[in-house]
């Protein structure tokens, strides 16, 4: 005990010295803080070396009842702030409070997380209790632009989607075009509930700063979020000038000017072009086919597991902000499994059912896969000029939401949409779309050919294979839509209906004879909720083999999509239906000439069901992993063929 007491006594001078040192440091720091917020009328914030200037905020106490609404500055005059003023200082005062440097906001994932709320309102300037109260009053005054003069919320401004909604804005007004552009391109203009804009009313600089901040967010969304909208170089230059002019008010809103400038610089640096957006998609897929034997006793197991890929780069260009020129490059090395081809031979050429919806084979050589130009027809619709490789699915609504994309939708061609949209020759031509959008009715008309560039006789735009579509879509409310489709097609000798799905016989291909098809379809989709969507279709084709006879082909299908299953952004999907089936022919002569039809029969023997299940797992905003399986119960609509199973693991990268 005496030994312990002696050791403590020896250490007491050391403990006493340390205590005096820390107490002195704490006292010095507290004294410095008191000097900073004492009787001085200035609180100085010294930025880091990254900022070119020092912001000095001069604060003074003002009672709330003395706050008057600031007026808009005219010319280059700056309106004084009612609570505080911001001025540029070239020297640092003796007593400063230093704030850490904040670099410009640079999201790691601009395509999804670019428009973040926390990047809009930046960090507040450190201040005393007095300046904090004054800042609250400043923000309170900014909110007045959403209320009437009496402060009633009954006059809150409503978002405007079309300039014609503003009853007091006329085409003869000097600012009409500017308002129209801000409303229709950026959606950052609001009007009053009575349908007026009140353009002659005096506006505070705070109101303008709030509107500028809203437009800045909208341009961020346009560049980072996708779609067919474009922010031009002139837009970004104008935005930068406005940020410079209204830096004082934006600071009072709570946003640091250096962060806003950094965000504008980020937009300029990361925009691919002032007129063009670059989009990319890459697919890696591991697939295999399983099953027993075909009706001739040939094993399906001859096929091996494969690792295949497909890459697409789309260049979306706009010259007016409303039109679209799309140029898409593609490379891929997908090959169909033997039983799913049309080539005859042991164990191959059984059916065209179960084909993968993302398959494309160019030998991994790059080629132009899509080329078209779209432009608006006033407010009534849009027109298309189809230069190369454009199918119906790129123009019309195929009424299978969430599953129609080849890269992120259903796994099979059949599961993406009705085979009626694949009839005939497609690729070059013209199209028109009327209505749509918020209107309940939409009408589509398309004329297309896959021989538009061939000048030979029997080819060209109007003398070769073609397909003409007319579709009327009715959408009475957001959760439900239904469409009626008609397709007239013509294909030359040895091609058939060219829908490339279903049984071989359903293609009605007769060597040496052209085929005319008249196809009728009905498609519908109903969303019980955003997480549960049920869709389906049915189609009938009356095919006429010129000079030989007629044939009938039927198909139907249904899909179920369960969104946000297991994880937000992921979904579980199912497909069930009958791929195109030949149900009858007008003569035995015709039946004997149809490729894939058994001798002595005038229709497919049985009915095969297409059953498909998959899970789209959202690994990240840009990576989607989709495992799934396709089951054909009687391949080729022939129960003598053993069932076929196709398993695949699709990984889709988007950028």
Automatic annotation (TrEMBL):
<dbReference type="InterPro" id="IPR038673">
    <property type="entry name" value="OprB_sf"/>
</dbReference>
<dbReference type="InterPro" id="IPR051465">
    <property type="entry name" value="Cell_Envelope_Struct_Comp"/>
</dbReference>
<dbReference type="GO" id="GO:0016020">
    <property type="term" value="C:membrane"/>
</dbReference>
<keyword id="KW-0732">Signal</keyword>
<feature type="signal peptide">
    <location>
        <begin position="1"/>
        <end position="28"/>
    </location>
</feature>
<dbReference type="InterPro" id="IPR007049">
    <property type="entry name" value="Carb-sel_porin_OprB"/>
</dbReference>
<feature type="domain" description="SLH">
    <location>
        <begin position="162"/>
        <end position="226"/>
    </location>
</feature>
<comment type="similarity">
    <text>Belongs to the OprB family.</text>
</comment>
<dbReference type="InterPro" id="IPR047684">
    <property type="entry name" value="Por_som-like"/>
</dbReference>
<dbReference type="InterPro" id="IPR001119">
    <property type="entry name" value="SLH_dom"/>
</dbReference>
<dbReference type="GO" id="GO:0008643">
    <property type="term" value="P:carbohydrate transport"/>
</dbReference>
<dbReference type="Pfam" id="PF04966">
    <property type="entry name" value="OprB"/>
</dbReference>
<dbReference type="GO" id="GO:0015288">
    <property type="term" value="F:porin activity"/>
</dbReference>
<protein>
    <submittedName>
        <fullName>Putative S-layer protein</fullName>
    </submittedName>
</protein>
<dbReference type="Pfam" id="PF00395">
    <property type="entry name" value="SLH"/>
</dbReference>
